[in-house]
Amino acid sequence: MNKYQSILIDLRNSDDNEITKNLQDLKNNYLNCLEEDGTFWILTNFKREKNEMLPIPFEICNKFTNNFLKNIILVPDFNNISEGIFFDNCTYLILFFSKNKKYYFNKDPIREKHIWKDVEWGKRKKNYHPLGKDPGNVWIKTEDDGKGKITNHILLPFEEVIGRIIKSSSKNNEDFLLINFKENKWNIR
Predict the structure, then answer these.
(1) Does residue 129 lie within any of the structural domains?
(2) What is the DSSP letter of 78?
(3) What is the pLDDT of residue 122?
(4) How far apart are CA 133 and CA 167, in angstroms?
(5) Is residue 153 in a domain?
(6) pLDDT tens profile 97-106
(7) Quick one: DSSP state of residue 7?
(8) What is the dihedral of CA 20, 26, 27, 33, to 10 degrees?
(9) 3-class secondary-structure state, position 22
(10) What is the number of structural domains in the chain?
(11) Residue-by-residue DSSP string for 109-170
């Protein structure tokens, strides 16, 4: 039986039956294949039914109470706007779980460029990690004018989102399992 450091499951835009089946498979079959210090990541979104938001991400969290929810990451996705009477739903969420309290996670490969580095680096050097800034839990890139002012927000392509998860959660960028992904070929840099 293969052991995986990280498992990613894509439940965005899935119907209720597909979500139930995939979560049951994850619990019954795939979590047994996860290393003891492994993590699993569930990509999901809210759904609207009869002008009511369904709290699918929170329902998923409740199904994994024996595991450890580490964070919820918000990813803007303006290609997937579903207009409603209140606000456009143009994001999806990544639920980040660990199998146990002790888990493998390395933020360094996904750090981003400091926008303040050249502006105030001298006096506050202790505030800056030499490899870059923490990406936080809202994954959107920024461009700046070189003087610390953000000039543009850039959406991450889906492949880059998956790459971030794999780079930060799998030790060799090879020991991961993708479930319910439409495309099976990934170029992880």
Answers:
(1) no
(2) G
(3) 57
(4) 16
(5) no
(6) 999 999 999 9
(7) E
(8) 170
(9) helix
(10) 1
(11) GG-B--SSHHHHTTTTGGGS-TT-B--TTB--EEEE-SSS-EEEEEPPPHHHHHHHHHHHH-
Distance CA 117, CA 143 (A): 13
101, with CB counted inside 10 A (0-12, 13-18, 19+), is exposed
Phi/psi region, residue 146 (left: phi>0; alpha: psi -120 to 50; beta: rest), is: left
> CA dist 22 to 19, 54, 170, Å?
5, 18, 22
DSSP code of 89? B
Domain of 15, CATH number, reads: 3.40.50.150
Identify whether 63 is part of a domain. yes
Task: Find residue 71's DSSP bridge partners.
Answer: 96
DSSP-derived secondary structure letter, 100: S
pLDDT tens digits along 114-125: 777 666 655 666
CB atoms within 10 A of CB 187: 6
> Residues near 48 by Cβ (< 8 Å), separated by ≥ 6?
54, 82, 84, 89
| Residue 154 forms part of a structural domain | no
Instruction: Give me the domain span that covers residue 102.
Output: 4-113+159-179
What percentage of the chain carries pLDDT values higher than 90? 41
